[in-house]
Amino acid sequence: MPYSQSAPSRIGAFFDYGVKKTLHKWLARGLSALPLPRPDDVVTSRYGVRMRANWQDRTFQYCRYATYGHVLSDYLAAQDAPFAFVDIGANQGLYSLLAAQNPHCAAALAFEPVAATCALLQDNIALNDAKARIRPVHAAVSLHSGIATIATNSTHSGIASLRDAGACTGPGTEDIRILGITGVDTLLPTDLPLIVKIDVEGHEETVVEALAASAHRDRLSAIFYEIDERWTDAAAIEARLRAIGFTRFDRFGIGRHYDVLGRR
Description:
Elements: H1 7-32, E1 42-44, E2 50-52, H2 58-64, H3 71-77, E3 83-88, H4 94-101, E4 105-111, H5 115-127, E5 134-137, E6 140-142, E7 146-151, E8 173-180, H6 181-187, E9 194-198, H7 204-212, E10 220-228, H8 234-243, E11 248-252, E12 257-263
Parallel strand pairs: 3-4, 3-9, 4-5, 6-8, 9-10
Antiparallel strand pairs: 1-2, 7-8, 10-12, 11-12
Helix pairs in contact: 1-2, 3-4, 7-8
């Protein structure tokens, strides 16, 4: 069945994603524009993890003020059996850090292809004493290994995109390493359910196709992914996941930009 919302849940979604999230975004945008030259600062996010300050970056401010909501953070915290977390598009590591806070998280793989962002990810892992659980991987995930050009934005690291080199509003491109699913499979634990987060700015369909081709696909228990209907086909992703055994798809958000939690 396609996802649907009751009237009360639509009202709640409007408040959470239409009002509260919008206010948090405007706060984060305003603060990221301030001249705050303290690159060595460490802050505690409202999600409860420590992060290296990246004051001019809107994505850092979103992490700092819990702008992303609590759907995935609550889901990770609620896991009461051993699992592994796969963070595809980890950015500065928020969700890997949150997964690692759960004692049932045996391991987390955090894939981040942009060099400066991956350096912050590694700093944040160290700041949270999470090196034993989180393995940072300086690469993007796709069907096949190789090198690609990604568009980057120094004031909003979260919109780095493989769609095309001109997709971002800010200047800058970077050649990055692509790790194909065969290579990814060698890094994944072989004996645990896998919870996956995908946030790759338009590369979601390819990543889902790669996961469907994984030798570990039968252990994929949940996939949390971002949809922007301007460049991502939500129906195609759902159909591909249903083909490998996913049966439940819960949508969180309003409008054309939202998140989906797919489960078996």
